[in-house]
Amino acid sequence: MSNSVEQQKRKVFDLKTIEVENVSRIFRISSEKEILALDDVSLHVKEGEVFGLLGPNGAGKTTLIKILATLLLPSKGRAFVAGHDVVKEPAKVRRVINLVSGGETPGYGSITTRENLWFFSQLYGLPKGESMKRIAKLSEDLALQEYLNTRTHKLSTGYRQRLNLARGLINDPKVLFLDEPTLGLDVITAKRIREIVRNRVKNGSGNSILITTHYMVEADQICDRIAIIDRGRMIALGTPAELKKMVSKQTIVSIETQPIDGGMDFMSSIAGVNGYSQTDEPSTGRIKLKVVLNEEGALQNVIHAVSARGRIFEIAKSEPTLEDVYIALVGKGFE
Ligand SMILES: Nc1ncnc2c1ncn2[C@@H]1O[C@H](COP(=O)(O)OP(=O)(O)O)[C@@H](O)[C@H]1O
Ligand SMILES: [Mg+2]
């Protein structure tokens, strides 16, 4: 009886591979200046979950990943990875994790892809046969076979990032941290990486992945749950569907206009406008506005204000996306 209670307890505990409790991180820039990079963040990641940290540049995503990967200490709060305290038991944490960052140069440029993977497999103390098996499997999954004998400084950005990911998976980590893994990559490589991410957590493997991104569509596609962070604070948490439900009572419209003299600041003062974002469309020279409205009636105000300043080419209502959730919460889009 007591045994089964014990087991139950452990099982529940094991379900969470990452636990973040009220974590803050302050960077002291000078005697007068401090940056609060993380402000009282709490979240957990379950076994088998792909969990996304979504936020603009400077939101604190990398800071949180570095704390969990034992590369940086929290200023306040506690965090656990696979049940181990990241501050008190960093060696135990390191044994079960791996970290891949976007845009990093992998390993050593003057040795080949195969030699790099071999080197890292040996750092993890893998037996020879097992190392060769994993290198073969990972090169197949990432379509790296043709490049196994290429010196890595000769690889394109896309293949370099495939190698990075292969290196990140060589120890079959229970928890994998991916920090903007598809940053600046071609469409095909980015797609391949997303597939690998999804496949890794399939079939009850119990592996989990914490991924940061500022690509909303990517977060929507591959994450089971997402925390949206902005200036160090977590402003929303849920499945993509739950997050989009937050804006289901609002009206979202896309408007294509001419570039408008004096910018779009006037938008924030229109009654009924919850927030907006603006993207330049270089191919047409037009501007695409995404506007989140409290109620449909406010659309008239927006059309009136915009058309007084420039020509409107197109207006369309759209289904809520994660971008709209962010706009509704913060009042503007990323950047
Ligand atoms: N080592 C550091 N020293 C000082 N400030 C830092 C350091 N690392 C990050 N920051 C600051 O902390 C904030 C969060 O940064 P970061 O975690 O890198 O954000 P993100 O990864 O979401 O772009 C930013 O304002 C950044 O300038
Ligand atoms: Mg970052």
Report on this model:
- By secondary structure, this protein is of the alpha/beta class.
- The protein folds into two domains: 48-67 and 91-244, 3-Layer(aba) Sandwich (Rossmann fold); 249-319, Alpha-Beta Plaits (2-Layer Sandwich), CATH 3.30.70.260.
- The chain is built from eleven helices and 14 strands.
- The chain has helices at 2-15, 61-68, 90-95, 113-123, 128-141, 157-169, 187-201, 216-222, 240-245, 298-307, 322-330; strands at 16-28, 34-46, 50-54, 76-81, 84-85, 97-101, 175-179, 208-213, 225-230, 233-238, 251-257, 273-281, 286-293, 312-317.
- The protein has a six-stranded mixed β-sheet, with helices on both faces. A four-stranded antiparallel β-sheet has the order 2-1-4-5.
- β9 (225-230) and β10 form a beta hairpin.
- The mean pLDDT is 91.
- The protein binds adenosine-5'-diphosphate (ADP) and magnesium ion (MG).
- Magnesium ion binds at residues 61-62, 179-180.
What is the compact description of this entry?
The protein has helices at 2-15, 61-68, 90-95, 113-123, 128-141, 157-169, 187-201, 216-222, 240-245, 298-307, 322-330, and strands at 16-28, 34-46, 50-54, 76-81, 84-85, 97-101, 175-179, 208-213, 225-230, 233-238, 251-257, 273-281, 286-293, 312-317. The chain is of the alpha/beta class.
